[in-house]
Specification:
By secondary structure, the chain is mainly α. The chain contains two helices and no strands. Helices cover 42% and strands 0% of the residues. The chain is elongated and about 65 Å long.
């Protein structure tokens, strides 16, 4: 049988410590987009298994690859 500690009123609940995912992405980039762009992104999320962050990351990867092919970035 498990022993449970009684919690008193006014005492904050202890939150379990979250394990840090070693592969978690930690950088955040914020950008403003138009309503139309947001609607387009939402359509893509519904027709694919990707969320908006994944779609934007993929778009950035394509853009970087294109610039490299054009030798715009050394």
């Amino acid at each position: 049988m498990q022993h449970h500690q009684k919690q008193y009123r006014g005492e904050p609940k202890q939150k379990p410590k979250r394990r840090r995912d070693e592969n978690a992405l930690i950088n955040v980039v914020s950008l403003r987009i138009s309503d139309q762009e947001k609607r387009e992104l939402e359509k893509i999320t519904k027709s694919s298994a990707k969320n908006i962050s994944e779609i934007v990351r993929e778009a950035i990867e394509f853009w970087i690859a294109k610039r490299k092919r054009l030798c715009l970035d050394v």
